[in-house]
Amino acid sequence: MDYDAISSRGAEVLAVSDDDLSMASYAVEALGLEFPILYDTDLAVIRGYEVFNLNGTGRTTPATFIVDKQGVIRWEYIGRNYSDRPSNGRIIDELGKLN
Fold it and tell me: What is the pTM assigned to this prediction?
């Protein structure tokens, strides 16, 4: 997942999921994820970042945000569909631009 390459740039990876805990826990184990997954079952954070139901699916749209230590969004990638996500290399490149 390139977690070491990301964390070596002073960044932390957090995932936010609206899935129920049993499904999200399964994904963590099956994918061997090395970062925390926060469960937002009431959609407070997801709605705050305005990524709920963007595609008319009634689901959270995949999105990646780089947020600085002051809470300012410095870069974002909003997916066009459920499987549209930036590559790890792209995220690492964007983090490099901030240093």
Answer: 0.84
Radius of gyration of the chain (CA): 14
Do residues 95 and 66 lie in contact, with contact meaning Cβ atoms separated by under 8 Å? Answer: yes
Q: What is the CATH number of domain 3-94?
A: 3.40.30.10
**Above 90 in pLDDT, residue 99?**
no
**What letter represents residue 46's amino acid?**
I
The per-residue pLDDT for range 6-54, each reduced to its tens digit, is 988 889 999 898 887 776 677 777 777 788 888 898 999 999 999 999 9
First to last CA, the chain: 21
Domain boundaries, the chain: 3-94
